[in-house]
Amino acid sequence: MLSNSPTRRAGFQPRKTWAGAAILTLGFLFGSSGVMAAAPPANTIIGNQASATYLDPNGASQLATSNLVQTTVQQVGSFTLDTVSSVTTTVINTKTGAAGATVYAPHVLTNTGNGTDTFSLSIAAPASPNGFTQVQVFADVNGDGLPDSTTPLCTAVPTAACNVTAQTVAGNNGVFQFVVAYSIPGTATTSSFTSPVSATITATPTTTALYAVGNTSAADVDHVNLTTGAAFNSTKGLNVPAVPWSANGGVWPTASASGPRSAASCLATVAGATTPSAGCVYTVYTLNFSNTGAAAGMFAIKDTLPAGFTYVPGSAVWSNAPGVALTDAALGDSTGIDYQASGNVVTAVVNSLGANVSQTISFVVMVNNTAVIGTSTTTNTAMYNPIDATGSTSSAPTGVTSPTNPASFTVTGTFGIVLGSAAGSSTTAIDTSAGVPNATANDTTTIASAAAGSTVKFTQTVFNTGNSSDIVNLTAALGSFPAGTTFKFFAADGLTPLIDNNSDGVVDTGPIAAGLSATIVVAATLPSPAVIPTGPFSAIVTGTSTGDSTKSETTRDTITALVGVLVDLTNTASGNGVSGTTGNGDVGTGPSPSPTTTNSTAAGTGTVFTLFVKNNDTVANTYSLAASQTTSFPGSLPAGWTVKFVASGGTCASAAITTVAVTANGGQTQVEACVTPPASQVAVTAQFIYFQIRSTLATSTGATAIDTKTDAVTVTLAATYSATLTPNNNGQVAPGGSVVYAHTLTNTGAQSCAGPYTVAAALPPADVSAGWTTALYIDNNGDGMIDAGDTLISGSIAGPLLASGTQKLLVKVFAPGGATAGATDTATVTVTFPAGATSCGTPSATDLSTVVTGQMRLDKLQALDTACTGLVTPVAATALVAKPGECIVYKIVATNQGAAPVTQMSINDAVPAYTSLTGATQPGTRCSSVNTTPVLANANYASTASTVSCGTAATVQPGGSATLMFNVKVNF
Fold it and tell me: What is the 3-state secondary structure (H, E, C) of 395-408?
């Protein structure tokens, strides 16, 4: 905060005179035209994360996200000294003084780069007699054109340069303001002191490697003239004078150097400035002028106020008439001054200002409601005549060509936000009270129903109602949503994850320009509870301004009803009571790891499975019927096998059906499935058969209703002693995580398998060394999950295993924390029965574990493209360092690491904050694929100002991949 008093202060304090120093002007906005494009500050981190959407083998919509890649913005240097950026002979100040006088020349060094640096100064001037007896430099933190203290930053005696040690100046228009004091010799005459005497001021940055050629130093010139007559010097400052005001009992309004702009309703009146209303901002300008010459003279000054101010009529006071308001009319004031204020132009002529006399004229201005954030419309210099202005009047001042120092008022931003629905506006979505959204559709987004375990997306709008760019942090509170619900924020496309753009640890919108808005999508992933709770369910989304953390706003997201599953496929009318994703369960979404029903039949003979289709949706539907030997649909059956669906009560000889119609709200229809192995089929135990139903009409939620269940067929032949261990499993596991596989040991012979028998799981030696481990359990309750009632296998199992009997086993595989995505481990599980003629042998099965983060794996790579040619191909995700104006090429590879095809796949990404597609040459190949249908090409690439994508409805086979590449330019 700058001082409001004229008291001098010691030392240099760097400050910023630009708007909203704490708020960055960035270049990323979702769903809004308010894109900002300023160079990001040094060390800003540009983060980016991609996503891919697809339908998994069960037809469920899935979202996979890539790794986060980051680029740090490198510092780029640039600066100006006053108005120049290179070494010049431009004259900035022309000062006039009498012999023995000291004149002060103000200067401003501005760091226009994107990072802090230090700058040294050197003033080279001739020594007396045709020069100065002393040159000194003083800090001028408040920018009033006069030294802040009597302590100089440097002093130069004759023949020496005045060198100021390096001063720290903040980037992004931080300034160092200083004055140079020139002492004219007391013995100077017009013959010995040849006017003008020149002094050269040179500024040099410390870290010259950051600067462009030609901007590694900057220089300009001061001129000092000697006079035997009047010599005037004038400065301008935001401060109150030493004399009383004409109103308010003599107390002036506060002379602030920064603050917000006024409301549109404020008035530029003395009464308004005396007792400011809320939102009305006033400050005081003081013109200081003095005669450092040898004789009295007429002083003339003209001050044209910038567009950000409005002059307050009747507020001006001359120091020679304390407490008396100047009339603002030409020739309307007391003897000695001709003062005139016409609109925003102030002119004054003091008839006679004596040698060594100082005076002031002070007046009040109102900060306009149209003032631009920063100092661009609230900085100005007054112009005065440095010598006798004989014959001047306030209507026609002569010789007013010398500038005062620039005096700046920093207009600070105000912050405000509103969160609402897609239908809301900044006025209709305002909360009823703090943290309580209003109940209208403008602030409450409602979805009629959603299925348990599904992801529901709510579209919201974030409005910036302040007058400065802002970044809004986003959080979502669970509210009355079911426990276990998770929330994630996406860009307007509903696909690209929002990230933390300002590194404060909270996901945010990215910058939103003043008066504009950003569209975001809140995705709520619902749990699948055993008991479906009764709605409605509401969650509160909160936005918090990062410009002013006291400003927050909320909106409400509501689901009216939660449906267990839209459709359920079971073997019995009520199901077996076990969740469809565990053990042999068939209730809710499947398929289960183990078959619910296993039928035995002879080779060539069909066996019938009874299936029940239950419609839990609020609308009737017709469902297609399908079967496969894998979870992939459309799939295939074992060679020679057939499946025929028939109506309820039918046999293998009945007429086939392909669909079934079911009424709404719990309606249920029975069908039969005849599974027939070929006559040549050898004996097989528990051949998995997956049945799937899929809605053919629109559901109430708009999603496709699908359920898959697991059954099995055992083809029997005469055998005395035999056993099988099934199935062979494939699973996915996270690094440091674990996965559980269910197996069934079945006696397929006619006699008992004698005990005791052992169960062991063997891992490849390399995997054991890497830290993979296993644990074996008896699944006592047969639910396919490890729970408190299951027995850890630490020795042999007593047996015997009776004919046709089964033993449920569980294998838990642990992945090491350092396992990389794509790494695999095969556990070979073997049951060993006692040797001999009655041995049931050593049946075995395998469990293949793949380390992944999802079925579709996304890898994101980046590379620096300094020339922005688009010819660079990323090969790593390593963090980068980039300068403003350089480019970053991103490469996103989506790979199907599952065992079945995925469909409707697309890769989506966003243009990161602080960057733009504009100015970056795009790679020649932007969208491509391997082993996909269709094969993707550039025709499948799409982009907007803020998003890019590759593909819209591609089918990716196992091991297949799609690649998106694009190039962005760092704002500069």
Answer: CECCCCCEECCCEE
